[in-house]
Amino acid sequence: MAYKITTDCTMCGTCADECPVSAIREGKDPYVIDADTCTNCGTCVDVCPAEAIIEA
User: Which of 2, 24, 27, 41 is the S-S candidate for 16 at Cβ 3.0 to 4.6 Å?
Assistant: First the structure.
């Protein structure tokens, strides 16, 4: 299962700060998840205040 950050992202950085493997980086708009680094732990989904991270 992979995750994607939608355009609902408010660019707050919470997901990137909480990612245990640093798979999330600031993109142009919104943040971007590096699928090769992501371990699909779901931490980003749990902490996103905008609920902008979904299963892709």
Answer: 24
